[in-house]
Amino acid sequence: MTLEPLAGLAVIDLYAGSGALGIEALSRGAAIAHFVERDHSALEALEANLDELAAGERARVWRLGLPAGIERLAEVLAEVDLVLADPPYGGEEARRLLEALGGPGRLRPGARVVLEHHAKDGVPERAGCLERTRERRYGETSVSWYVARGGEPGAKPGGA
To answer: Is residue 3 helix, strand or coil?
Structure first.
C-alpha cells in the first residue's frame, strides 16, 4: 500500500502484524496510530518495533480479534481519519470487516478505509456507509479504497 503524507491524522492499523502500515503512517506525519492484532508473536514484534522507533507516545496497541472486536473499538473508530486493513486472504474476512466498519455511526463521514485483500475475495462496492472509490490489482492482491459517506467530511456521527 502506498500512503500519502498524513500530517495530523489519526490512523488505525487493523490486522497490524509487525505494525508496518501504521508505523509508515506515523513516519508520514500521522498524529496517532492504533494497532490491532491478536497473535502473540506478532504483538511482540509490533511492540519491539514501536520501542525501537520510540513511537510509544503516538501509538496504542489493542489485543483483539477481528472483525468481532470492532465493537470494543467504537470510540477509536469514531475519531480516526484513516483505517488501514490487511485481513487474512481468502474466505469472508475482508467482506465481514467492511460490513462491521460500515455500520451506522461506526466511522465519521469522510473517514477513509484502505483494504488490502485477495483479488478473489469479492469485496463489495458498498458496505453500509462505505463506498469504494477505487481499486487496484497487483497480481493476486487487490487494494480497495473506501470513503465513509453520510455528511460533510470531517463531521462527527450524529451531527456533533
So the answer is: coil
